[in-house]
Amino acid sequence: MNAHCDTVEEFQCNNGFSDLIIDTKKSAVHRKHETSRKEDEDESRLPALEAAYTNILRHLGEDTHREGLLRTPLRAAKAIQFLTKGYHETIEDILNNAIFDEDHDEMVIVKDIDMFSLCEHHLVPFFGKVHIGYIPNKKVVGLSKLVIFFFFFFLVQERLTKQIAVGIHEALQPKGVAVVIEAAHMCMVMRGVQKMNSRTVTSAMLGVYLEDPKTREEFLTLSQRA
User: Locate the GTP cyclohydrolase I domain: which residues (predicted)?
Assistant: First the structure.
């Protein structure tokens, strides 16, 4: 404790801890309010979504009054709300000011982040792995949390790959960002060409990863290494 401070409270006040505690409490209250508001909005949308799923089942020839389907429209409505929750969230909600100053300027790679999303063409899942590299510019972040935000929309893999790269770039302003996604698409596996073992690979490169072949090659080599 500082020699000029007689109490813990004085030490905290003199070193700015009181302001930090107040800001943290305000942030927590704001997040709680926002969460409550979003939950209320989701609840208000449920009846229309439930009715829509009921109509779909009926038009497909199902009996929506049979035991196995009695609560299916409601369950499906709640599921689709969760799987598309990105429409009602923001990057700021997810990051929650969790970007940190760090004197590190070497490549950071996070491999094998599990991903899933819904294809906007057929509304069926595609899923796989995301590999990310970036070269910090004095700021770092927990990448998995940021990346997962982008999964909860109707998407195509190509756009998802670019959105993740741009999102990291805008959040951190790094020297470069690289993203590779490998995914299986149920629209290919279950219908159409029915290619059971096919994978789609997409990439997005920004900054030094785009400009410097050696940096790009280093990332691609390390991200694919078992």
Answer: 50-222
Residue 187 catalytic? yes
Does CATH number 3.40.50.300 belong to domain 26-88? no
104 part of the active site: no
Structure tokens at 200: 């789609």
The domains of the chain are located at 26-88, 97-223
Q: Which fold has domain 97-223?
A: GTP Cyclohydrolase I, domain 2 (3.30.1130)
**Residue 120 annotated among the catalytic residues of the structure:** yes
Return the pLDDT at 126: 96
121, 158, 211, 217: the active-site residue:
121
| Segment 136-147, tens digit of pLDDT | 999 888 888 889
Q: Is 169 a known active-site residue?
A: no
Is 218 catalytic? The answer is no
The verdict on whether 13 is a catalytic residue reads no
Give the start-end residues of each E strand in the chain.
99-101, 108-119, 125-135, 139-141, 154-155, 176-185, 200-207
